[in-house]
Amino acid sequence: MSKRKHRPKRENLLTSPGTLTYIGPDNELKTKIRKIQYSEKFYKNEAVTSLAECAANPSLEPHITWLDVDGIHETALVGKIGTLYHLHPLILEDIVNTEHKPKLEVYDTGYIFLTLKMLHVDSEEPLEISSEHVSFVTGKDYLISFQEERSDDIFNPVIERLNASVGKTRRNGTDYLVFALMDVIVDNYFLVLEKFGEKLDLVEESIISGSKRESLNDLYALKRELTFVRRAIWPLRDMINQLIREDNSLISKEVVPYYRDLYDHTMQALDTVDSYRELLASLADVHLSTISNRMNAVMKTLTIFSAIFMPLTFIVGVYGMNFENMPELKNPYGYYYTWGVMAIVTVGMILYFKAKKWM
Amino acid sequence: MSKRKHRPKRENLLTSPGTLTYIGPDNELKTKIRKIQYSEKFYKNEAVTSLAECAANPSLEPHITWLDVDGIHETALVGKIGTLYHLHPLILEDIVNTEHKPKLEVYDTGYIFLTLKMLHVDSEEPLEISSEHVSFVTGKDYLISFQEERSDDIFNPVIERLNASVGKTRRNGTDYLVFALMDVIVDNYFLVLEKFGEKLDLVEESIISGSKRESLNDLYALKRELTFVRRAIWPLRDMINQLIREDNSLISKEVVPYYRDLYDHTMQALDTVDSYRELLASLADVHLSTISNRMNAVMKTLTIFSAIFMPLTFIVGVYGMNFENMPELKNPYGYYYTWGVMAIVTVGMILYFKAKKWM
Amino acid sequence: MSKRKHRPKRENLLTSPGTLTYIGPDNELKTKIRKIQYSEKFYKNEAVTSLAECAANPSLEPHITWLDVDGIHETALVGKIGTLYHLHPLILEDIVNTEHKPKLEVYDTGYIFLTLKMLHVDSEEPLEISSEHVSFVTGKDYLISFQEERSDDIFNPVIERLNASVGKTRRNGTDYLVFALMDVIVDNYFLVLEKFGEKLDLVEESIISGSKRESLNDLYALKRELTFVRRAIWPLRDMINQLIREDNSLISKEVVPYYRDLYDHTMQALDTVDSYRELLASLADVHLSTISNRMNAVMKTLTIFSAIFMPLTFIVGVYGMNFENMPELKNPYGYYYTWGVMAIVTVGMILYFKAKKWM
Amino acid sequence: MSKRKHRPKRENLLTSPGTLTYIGPDNELKTKIRKIQYSEKFYKNEAVTSLAECAANPSLEPHITWLDVDGIHETALVGKIGTLYHLHPLILEDIVNTEHKPKLEVYDTGYIFLTLKMLHVDSEEPLEISSEHVSFVTGKDYLISFQEERSDDIFNPVIERLNASVGKTRRNGTDYLVFALMDVIVDNYFLVLEKFGEKLDLVEESIISGSKRESLNDLYALKRELTFVRRAIWPLRDMINQLIREDNSLISKEVVPYYRDLYDHTMQALDTVDSYRELLASLADVHLSTISNRMNAVMKTLTIFSAIFMPLTFIVGVYGMNFENMPELKNPYGYYYTWGVMAIVTVGMILYFKAKKWM
Amino acid sequence: MSKRKHRPKRENLLTSPGTLTYIGPDNELKTKIRKIQYSEKFYKNEAVTSLAECAANPSLEPHITWLDVDGIHETALVGKIGTLYHLHPLILEDIVNTEHKPKLEVYDTGYIFLTLKMLHVDSEEPLEISSEHVSFVTGKDYLISFQEERSDDIFNPVIERLNASVGKTRRNGTDYLVFALMDVIVDNYFLVLEKFGEKLDLVEESIISGSKRESLNDLYALKRELTFVRRAIWPLRDMINQLIREDNSLISKEVVPYYRDLYDHTMQALDTVDSYRELLASLADVHLSTISNRMNAVMKTLTIFSAIFMPLTFIVGVYGMNFENMPELKNPYGYYYTWGVMAIVTVGMILYFKAKKWM
């Protein structure tokens, strides 16, 4: 069984609001920052080594700056980037709080703050799914993405597309870039759900065939993982909806259909989650019924054995009595007659249980 | 049990949005395209062999062009038709994504996009229902319908009516044509639900009579098929509602009552689905209670046998002891007395269990 | 168990919308039509024999014409009446579709269409409830009521009141007449629910006393009938609400309180249905618990018998052994001592089970 | 178990709407009417003996008239009071219909009609709760209260406060008087819920200790009483809300906070009801689990007895065989060896079951 | 099991509304009042000894007065403070009613009334959580906080921050002070939930390993505590939402983001509560299934023993019969053959049960 811990994680309790406290897994890796600058005409991707390089470059022609911060455990660094881009302290608190649930906030000062969950399959047997806390802050011409430090970078497909050709991403603004990054995350949900579906197929087979004993605990572990997945995906629904409806100048009209498409995909993922939930519930019912049926079979076996051998044992007991006057004992065929009677009793019992469909 | 797979199907994951990827069953049949042109005055139905023929014919007098595309696995072809009619790439993605759930989208550029599910009974024993992905794109004077390639064409009744006479369909616009095609699909739901109802009658009978063992798995398979059907029908409710309410110029006021009628039929289908669901739940309860009752009967049988034969075996055991001084053994009638005692015990037990209503 | 069929009934599938198809029970009786004309000053009730007589009589002073059509299986006749009063073909379809659920439609052309369900208790043991499809079309000065042909006419109380005296019905318009007819139907629901309540009392008693075996199937049958009743009554709630709120000229302000009263009664009927539902669920729980308790009792009996007789049988078995050297066998009181030991064992066991409260 | 009847009570079915029919318990007591007149300056409380005295007294200085009608079984009298104060016939119907659920109606003609339920604990063992139908009709300067005739008058505390001093009630209008009377009724709910809580404590204790057999039926009876209580209180929530929001001239702004307080108390009562419901559900689960545990214990006892005595009985059976050549029988210590083997088997079994934690 | 009492607590029933009645635990401690005055420039914290000192000090430069009343059992004192600050009597009633659920009320007269619950872990084994009733009344330049007298003061962290430096709290108005105090309370919820999570881990482990018998009662007790916690936290959601949305002049725009953050934390706490609820439900299922599995194991053991020893006992019974003519008895190897047959039967049975996977 997966060892999901049952404890709310909030370490900055009782400190002044806005204090940055990282509560995710310990992480030795150093924060990596990449700065990608592009417009339809040019594209530049460089690793950032000093805080000064993090700032946008106003001297260039109009372009988009994407700052990809890989690692949020160095809260001091996050704080400095926040200061550089004039972000509200409470946003910074949410960026480093890996337990914060997905949310969207539109700030009057012209930027949008988004936080969501990337899902990873940590282990397949038993199935364990973990989430990575990803945040975006986006203005008219910049996007800062924050993610927990992991070995594989989830945004590589988008970077490759940016690099490869002057496609839709290069032609559009930060609104399309945000969409592209969220799309990668949502597409990833389907990969996770596929793993889940494979596992579910195995459990279903084992439950219906009744071959494995620990099935219910497996079901229970799967249910918890599924609840975890659902909690990660569910808030996206409202967030995207809000992005589409929100009367803001940051999402242009041409990009709205892409967000609507993203919404559809999110709904499809949630639908899959819900159908898995129903399936798990059905499987639990089947499991319980299988247990009952098996108990029934055990009881029938016991009853059949008892009903056949109790009368026989009684009969042989009768002729084991030591009464002086028991005429049957002297009959030379008494022993054989007794066997005959016992054969009749046995056959009768078997016929009776066959009639009752217990055999 | 039906082998519905538990996996979300989306193959174009991590590709650029708008990439066309067909994920339905493999299909060797070539795409068939029919072009039907009609107005109140004329009617023309021809098989289309080249892409050029797919375009509407503006030189004719005002008429309606219905392009019926039978087969969506050739995504390149779908893409070309999309280009010909200036459809948004995301629409094309939804047309070929056979797992996309039913939805309606009204585009500012003057066309409506609709996608829904045709249901087919693939197998009756066990009951297996599959869905066919059907899409409509309709403007003022054209309708393009996309369906998966199947041997039987579901729109034949409408084509026959168009051909047969100058009826309501010929006199009205594309709004009525869309209604007529959707009506065929919704009517078909009732045929599928009828098969379902027949199957349900059988399962109900078998459960109430308690004759079949694998009833619960049957119930569970039916429940899954029903959930599948429900997911296919459910979104129609909102779609038709939106079509009626939507303040669009594409649905004329005269045709609205027909859509309202279609809405009623959809609700009736959903009501039937819901009553089947309740029935399945009730049957599962009856099934569980039947198992319990049967276990009870088994236990009673065992208890009655034990309670009768244990005392008898004890009695004959007593007189099987080898004590030198056991006066009863010397009594010439001891053996017969013993039988008498055993008869009394047996009758007493039977009366006791009769009184307890266990026999 | 009541033989409610699990099949959606719609026979005009795949025909052109607006085709009239009767799907109710076969009915040999000929359609009977009565025409009642009244105002505060006069009252006339005549059987109609020709279609021409069905039309309103404009030459008379202002009055209300109520056409009561008893029998909807002659769809041709219904169609002709529809033509006479200029009714929309889809309304006629709903009038003859006995499976259509209750609904209200207000037409711009100045008439209201209402369809609802009259409930009948067909059989009391087992309880079987059937519904009769009743429709009203009402304009400013006419009302056409359609009902399935049955031996007893449900509207008699209203006709009698109309005839008897110049009461509220005679003084008011068609809005009050519609109310009066609906009131009769809703009052009838209470009569049906009363029969249901009586049956429920019997089943409750039998379950709590645990006397009858087939109780769960009874519960299940009752639940299905109740669901049937609920489906018939539920839509009335919205319909009446809509009639009250709808800003239409057909319901006058003076009559609104009566509709509000009708609404209260409908809610009271639904409340009763819901409390019956809860009761049925509770009874199912009690039933299951009773089964468990009884199984418990059976098991205890078995265990007590086994625990008493197994040791005894063992003891007598010991002295049935044929060892040459068994000192007890030679003891002249050995047999009696053995009985003593067995008595002690038996009493000990009984005390043990008394202490455990199993006896 | 409480004998709550499962039947909707409406006796005036199929009569003309507005007919007054009393359906409460038979009641021999004569209707008692009190007329209380008060303003800040004076207070007068007199028993009314004739209908004429019921009318308000316009000759007096501005004051409030409260007519307290104790007994609604004399429907003729209620009808006459209705005529005197120009009440709508449907209101009178609701006043005498003791089964009508709580509701509020604001009439254009300047009066408010309120009906609610006073709860009484009829019996404590088993707990039986009955409701008394209380109605208020209130205008600017009069209030008529109707209640079923009971031995104790529920409004005494208010009358005493009116009499005792020139408090808030004397200084305010009928809006405050209505509040004060409703407050008495809501306060009374807490007294009833307290009795319920005491009973619940007892049942909880008996279920957790597992001492009483009939616990489930007790739970079931309590659940029904609780549902009854909930139905009585629930509609108050909306009623008070409506009184606060309703833009009417009858509730003055100063009195609104008191109604808001009343609303809070009603919510608190409903919260208590809901927590009792959850508790009952939990107790039912505990009860079922207790039954299962007990069955488990019974089965273990049986299995332990069987597993110990079956091998022993087999062993003694072996040496009860009569083969001529059985060397052990001739061994002078054979008998004692046999006892040794049996002791080892017994101890082995006991250790085995101890290891399995069955003993 | 925790002894949460099932009784609504309201002692001022049937008294005039606005009467102050303390219903919390008896409390010998005297009410302690602290008066804290601060602005950005100065800070003063003094114990209040007379009622006169409670009033704000208008002669000072503009500053904020926070009156922290520790102990609400002296209702007379609460009443006097209420008079001093012109509070509505119903507010005072809610301040001393420790059972009142959290609520927010905005008064026209320019102050806000807030009441919420502080949670305390009273005992860890079994887990017992109690709530402390905390209320705030806040105007433009004063805040009065009321809490039950406890040994530890929950607001100390805020007082320390006020004292320590000129931070956000000192620079902002009463709106930020209210936020800071509520934040302390919400942060505390996480500490309580953490204790809960630890306990849950223990119970989960004990249920999955199946080691403890009383697990279900533990589950049930935890569920009740959790429900208690949920009731305390749930209303906060609406309260904070209302504070944010409410178009009032008391919450300044700069402070709104902090309230939004508080809202997020409240939601996170509620999410944790809900996930614990689901977990408890799953554990109850696992528990029930464990019981069933164990019963199954017991039954199998019994059946295996019976099926092996019943035939053996029968066989030895056969040769214990005393027929004169039993050829086998004279066979010198008969005894050994019999053992051979019994060995075969035993091995056959064992193979049979192995094949059935019962062993």
UniProtKB/TrEMBL annotation, chains A, B, C, D, E:
Domain of life: Bacteria
InterPro entries hit by this protein: CorA_cytoplasmic_dom, CorA_TM1_TM2, Mg/Co-transport_prot_CorA, MgTranspt_CorA/ZnTranspt_ZntB
Keyword field: Cell membrane, Ion transport, Magnesium, Membrane, Transmembrane, Transmembrane helix, Transport
Compartment annotation: Cell membrane; Membrane
UniProt xrefs under Pfam families: CorA
Annotated TM spans: 302-321, 333-353
Primary location class: membrane
GO cellular component entries: plasma membrane
A GO MF term: cobalt ion transmembrane transporter activity
Membrane topology according to the record: Multi-pass membrane protein
The protein's role, per its UniProt record: Mediates influx of magnesium ions.
Family, similarity comment: Belongs to the CorA metal ion transporter (MIT) (TC 1.A.35) family.
Protein known as: Magnesium transport protein CorA
Phylogenetic lineage: Bacteria, Pseudomonadati, Bacteroidota, Cytophagia, Cytophagales
Designated gene of the protein: corA
